[in-house]
Write a sequence for this structure.
């Protein structure tokens, strides 16, 4: 379809679009062969650079977590800003203080760094989530989330270590924007749904329903073959052949070992308890198992952070499970020697207003705040025990060293060995860079060199 | 815009002696040098240097054509701006790239020849190569840009324009540039060649075309931003005698003519069962109900297919399904990135659906959209302008030309179109028609009024001059200073002689029904992407115009044709054909069709909701997927099976390709399992009065596949039920599950 040897393959800017790109999808595991694009990329890239990070676990606080009550406490700002949570606590790193409801994380502070000067200035969920997830500003093209980019780039260099999908969201998709963007359906995140904390947790699609034996699966399959006359008559039509390959692989997965990655019963009770018997905690544990199985990008989707009303009650409900799950994940990854190769990030689409909305109907609420907020990074080449940037006295403005979403995203890409100035397959053959830093069209504070080992 | 491509008198003997083979002349037209004064005209940038740079790939996106250039040198992408490129090479950096005294020491030549380090992937023009020599001479002759009053390059001329080749055979193209003074210059060695289907024929950089396998393809030849197209036909040995035409009308005659040319014997006409399921899915998005299937299959009336088409064209489901299609193009969606908001979504969708149900003439439908004003919550078509992420005249122009003309202007926003002549000026001229569209808020949350702002203008981003409205490929339109120019645009667009409007509509309808456009991609009409059946496309467009833009007339013509009603089973003589409609092209059911079909077979409904904005919206439980107004309605099934996100109006957004997760869904998901187990159909089949195994098997197969089971299938299925008497409910569920997992179910065939 594309003649790479032709000196003219560039004629359509880069020569081919998403359709060509996907047409080869049926050839290998999970449809990520895309031979032409990859051959081209591999040729352009040469050897992939040695990179510290192999996987990313993104802890996503959908709705927007408050910076003041978590990683950027401002006890001096007074009750109008702090509400009842007016204490900062010491951590195991001298001078690094965090919110009072995160005591377990305080003991792991040497493993993570806090970015207190994140900014994009957008206060709407959808747009801000898009900016943070893709590391780009909205434009004519709808960009893929970082997880989809990582999935693509891993496949480009032939580094798909697992038969599992490369971009997994635990357990429900973010919903607020399309995570695959212009890369198309093959790069959409795999979100198995359900609650890993539930007794009967099993992954849709991978683990058969209870009572469904391998024999019955095989028997059903032979029934299909008995009735599928069309497949034989029309075998030469390409669309049918493609579907065959995927069905074949699906049976392989279903009857094979890959599903064991999702089996939490293989963990000890002590481990499960350390993470916390909550959906968030068990999702963190599952994320660690997936990292062990070679999955390069996992998002743990924790919702409920859009706390316009009764914010402080919500914090007392939300922060302890976060503290437990997040701290357990860091400790566990460290003990297993995985933290060096696994980036863990924490954050949401924006922070929340530092000044508390006291009156009805809010009764102590915090609203959307994109001017300055905090993110946390750990592992995979990010240093621990440091604070990057600062907000002002009341946490309302960037005071030092702005960090834009694309600065963070490009730093993560860099640690994964992905060139932020590299390209993505534009749907209509034009140029699409991995990061807007490549085209210089955005303000930047630069890569996070200060906290990258 | 091609004024810049002027050319001095360069066909001199001296030059030809230096560059043997590089510049051959049209002997008759070469202007003679003035007698006695053999002063050769100097080489010039536009005609001599640019083609060399272009051919070496210097101005591509990967090299110096990228937005920020490369290695300090920036050229315009594909050489769309020759003057800027000339300045970049000769003046930028203090003119350090050029050494007129010692041309060979010019940075330009040292880089391009590899004497100095250059990007490893870049092309190299070795010293003393003809191309290198041209550049050196041009520098020595003091880097002339272009000469005044020189003949202009007007068009490409490629001979011959159609090749008939056998697999393995080759032919060589000759490419001539025609100039305003009648001169012709052989530019074969300087032109770009590209085949739009390498599997049929490949073309070498030297212009040698080699046929690979049977089929038909187009070769696009580009030189200095002008293009020409050559058709290559590779017929296969046809069966003898070639089957006679069974044409039922003009469509079939035109399709048959191409099939005969290629030696592709068409497949026969499909069975009633296939037709029934196909036409239901294509017109209503639904499977034929069991009772309707029984009646149709038993009907002996020879006119029953035409009658069914009429009945379905008049149905409510037809309006639902086609409102869904138009909802994709018009981006009817409440949130990111188009933000129509739920109330606007409902108002807009209702207007579209009502227009389709009333069979509003297509030109009127488009005029109403393009000239709409008013509240987006009350006036449906006003949402046409709201449903743009950036809501600016350029995007209105780009969207309008894409949806209603099949013209992709967006390239020209940043750079010249790679193969077409469109530039930013064309894009701005179209945008100027929409310069007075403005928005203002009201007291109601998220409501906006689309109104005409008399002061609205479009300015050129660089010169800041006000741009006058200009029809694409046509004239500037004198409009009053405060006049809303949209009605003039709508009138031009929907005029019978508009070259794009009716063709685009006809092509889209053909694509929707046959699974492949006559022009493919269906929204990419341009000379360098010629249709597979030009005459057929013209015929359909004429029919649309002569029937006052009655889309149902077009549907009737196509659906009643033999071409639409061909069997999907390929024959030995047309197996390799994927583009000429020798047999029906199978299409996987779209996401919405598939979910509704599962609902019909199992007799279940689906819960749809939207989180935008809070509080959440819930649809009534009887809503079908094909009835959903809002592209933001949450449904993981629809996402999994490739519902278009409605982010952009491109057809390619709908993704009906297979994936592993889809396969896992069908083989092993609670969702499907529950629908089968808890649906009304299985319950009814198992409830008293007791039904025979044969009856159960009949109904399941009929519901899913619109046909009765074959004897072999019936035997296997009834045997399965007999064997599992003890667990009969589970066995019936297994049968239904099996039928839902067949390709015959998953595909429209």
């Amino acid at each position: 379809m594309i003649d790479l040897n032709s000196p003219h393959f560039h004629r359509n800017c880069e020569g081919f679009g998403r359709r060509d790109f996907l047409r080869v999808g049926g050839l290998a595991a999970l449809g990520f062969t895309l031979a032409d694009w990859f051959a081209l990329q591999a040729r352009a890239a040469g050897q992939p650079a040695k990179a510290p990070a192999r996987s990313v676990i993104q802890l996503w606080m959908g709705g927007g977590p408050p910076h003041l009550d978590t990683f950027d406490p401002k006890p001096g700002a007074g009750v109008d800003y702090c509400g009842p949570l007016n204490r900062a606590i010491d951590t195991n790193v001298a001078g690094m203080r965090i919110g009072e409801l995160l005591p377990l994380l305080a003991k792991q502070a040497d493993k993570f760094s806090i970015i207190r000067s994140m900014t994009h200035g957008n206060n709407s969920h959808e747009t801000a989530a898009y900016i943070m997830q893709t590391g780009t500003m909205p434009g004519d093209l709808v960009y893929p989330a970082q997880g989809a980019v990582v999935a693509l780039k891993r496949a480009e260099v032939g580094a798909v270590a697992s038969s599992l999908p490369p971009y997994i969201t635990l357990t429900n998709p973010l919903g607020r924007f399309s995570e695959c963007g212009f890369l198309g359906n093959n790069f959409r995140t795999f979100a198995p749904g359900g609650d890993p904390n539930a007794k009967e947790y099993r992954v849709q699609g991978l683990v058969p329903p209870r009572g469904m034996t391998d024999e019955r699966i095989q028997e059903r399959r032979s029934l299909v073959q008995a009735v599928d006359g069309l497949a034989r008559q029309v075998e030469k039509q390409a669309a049918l052949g493609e579907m065959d390959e995927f069905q074949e692989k699906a049976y392989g997965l279903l009857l094979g070992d890959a599903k064991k990655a999702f089996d939490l019963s293989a963990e000890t009770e002590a481990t499960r308890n350390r993470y916390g018997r909550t959906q968030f905690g068990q999702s963190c544990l599952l994320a660690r198992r997936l990292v062990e199985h070679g999955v390069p990008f996992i998002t743990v989707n924790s919702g409920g952070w859009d706390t316009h009303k009764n914010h402080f009650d919500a914090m007392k409900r939300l922060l302890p499970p976060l503290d437990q799950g997040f701290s357990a994940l860091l400790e566990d990854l460290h003990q297993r020697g995985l933290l060096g190769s696994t980036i863990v990030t924490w954050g949401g689409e924006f922070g929340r207003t530092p000044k508390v909305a006291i009156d009805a109907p809010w009764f102590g609420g915090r609203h959307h705040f994109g001017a300055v907020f905090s993110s946390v990074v750990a592992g995979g080449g990010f240093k621990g025990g440091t604070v990057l940037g600062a907000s002002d006295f009341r946490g309302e403005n960037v005071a030092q060293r702005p960090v834009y979403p694309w600065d963070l995203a490009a730093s993560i890409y860099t640690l994964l060995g992905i060139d932020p100035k590299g390209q993505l397959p534009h749907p209509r053959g034009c140029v699409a860079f991995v990061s807007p830093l490549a085209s210089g069209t955005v303000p930047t504070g630069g890569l996070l060199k200060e906290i990258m080992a | 815009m091609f004024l810049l491509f002027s050319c001095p008198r360069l066909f001199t003997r001296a030059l030809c002696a230096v560059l043997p083979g590089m510049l051959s002349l049209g002997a008759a037209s070469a202007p003679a040098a003035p007698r006695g004064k053999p002063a050769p005209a100097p080489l010039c940038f536009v005609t001599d240097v640019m083609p060399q740079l272009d051919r070496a790939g210097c101005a591509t996106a990967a090299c110096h054509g990228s937005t920020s250039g490369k290695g300090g040198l920036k050229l315009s992408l594909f050489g769309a701006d020759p003057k800027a490129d000339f300045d970049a090479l000769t003046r930028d950096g203090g003119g350090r790239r050029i050494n007129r005294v010692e041309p060979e020491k010019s940075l330009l030549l040292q880089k391009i020849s590899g004497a100095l380090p250059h990007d490893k992937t870049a092309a190299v023009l070795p010293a003393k190569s003809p191309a290198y020599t041209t550049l050196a001479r041009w520098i020595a002759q003091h880097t002339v840009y272009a000469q005044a009053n020189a003949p202009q390059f007007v068009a490409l001329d490629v001979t011959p324009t159609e090749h008939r080749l056998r697999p393995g055979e080759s032919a060589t193209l000759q490419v001539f540039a025609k100039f305003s003074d009648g001169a012709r210059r052989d530019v074969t060695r300087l032109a770009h060649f590209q085949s739009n289907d390498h599997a049929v024929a490949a073309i070498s950089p030297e212009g040698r075309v080699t046929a690979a396998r049977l089929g038909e393809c187009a070769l696009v030849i580009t030189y200095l931003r002008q293009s020409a197209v050559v058709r290559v036909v590779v017929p296969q040995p046809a069966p003898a005698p070639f089957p006679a035409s069974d044409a039922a009308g003009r469509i079939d005659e035109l399709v048959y003519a191409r099939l005969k040319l290629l030696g592709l014997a068409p497949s026969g006409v499909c069975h009633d069962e296939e037709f029934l399921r196909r036409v239901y899915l294509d017109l209503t998005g639904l499977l034929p109900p069991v009772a309707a299937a029984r009646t149709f299959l038993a009907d002996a009336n020879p006119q029953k297919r035409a009658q069914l088409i009429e009945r379905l064209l008049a149905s409510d489901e037809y309006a639902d399904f086609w409102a869904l299609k138009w909802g994709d193009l018009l981006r009817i969606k409440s949130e990111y990135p188009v933000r129509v908001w739920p109330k606007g979504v409902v108002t807009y969708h209702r207007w579209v659906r009502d227009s389709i149900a009333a069979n509003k003439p297509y030109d009127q439908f488009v005029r109403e959209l393009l000239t709409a004003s008013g509240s987006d919550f009350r006036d449906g078509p006003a949402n046409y302008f709201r449903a743009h992420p950036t809501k600016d005249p350029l995007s209105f122009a780009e969207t309008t030309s894409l949806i209603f003309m099949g013209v992709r202007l967006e390239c020209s926003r940043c750079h010249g179109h790679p193969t077409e002549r469109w530039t930013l000026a064309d894009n701005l001229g179209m945008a100027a028609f929409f310069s007075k569209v403005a928005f203002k808020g009201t007291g109601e949350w998220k409501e906006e009024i689309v109104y005409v702002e008399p002061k609205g203008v479009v300015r050129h981003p660089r010169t800041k001059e006000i741009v006058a409205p200009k029809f694409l490929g046509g004239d500037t339109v004198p409009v009053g200073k405060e006049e809303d120019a949209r009605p003039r645009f709508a009138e031009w667009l929907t005029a019978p002689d508009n070259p794009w409007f009716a063709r685009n509509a006809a092509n889209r309808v053909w694509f929707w029904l046959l699974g492949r456009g006559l022009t493919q991609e269906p929204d990419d009409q341009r000379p360098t992407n010629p249709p597979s059946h030009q005459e057929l496309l013209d015929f359909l467009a004429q029919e649309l115009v002569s029937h006052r833009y009655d889309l149902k007339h077009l549907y009737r013509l196509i659906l009643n044709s033999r071409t639409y009603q061909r069997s999907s089973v390929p024959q030995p003589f047309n197996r390799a054909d994927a583009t000429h409609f020798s047999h029906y092209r199978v299409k996987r059911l779209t996401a919405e069709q598939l979910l509704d079909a599962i609902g019909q077979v199992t007799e279940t409904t689906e819960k749809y909701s939207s989180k935008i904005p809070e509080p959440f919206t819930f649809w009534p439980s009887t809503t079908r997927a094909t009835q959903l107004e809002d592209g933001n309605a949450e449904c993981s099934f629809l996402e999994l099976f490739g519902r278009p996100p409605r982010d952009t109006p491109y057809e390619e957004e709908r993704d009906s390709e297979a994936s592993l997760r889809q396969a896992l869904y069908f083989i092993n998901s609670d969702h499907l399992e529950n629908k089968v187990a808890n649906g009304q159909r299985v319950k009814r089949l198992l409830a008293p009065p007791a039904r025979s195994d044969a009856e159960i098997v009949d109904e399941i197969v009929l519901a899913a596949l619109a046909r009765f089971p074959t004897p072999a299938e019936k035997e296997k299925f009834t045997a399965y039920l007999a064997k599992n008497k003890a667990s009969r409910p589970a066995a019936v569920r297994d049968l239904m599950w099996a039928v839902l997992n067949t390709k015959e179910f998953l595909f429209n065939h």
About this structure: The CA atoms of residues 323 and 712 of chain B lie 41 Å apart. The longest strand of chain B covers residues 215-223.
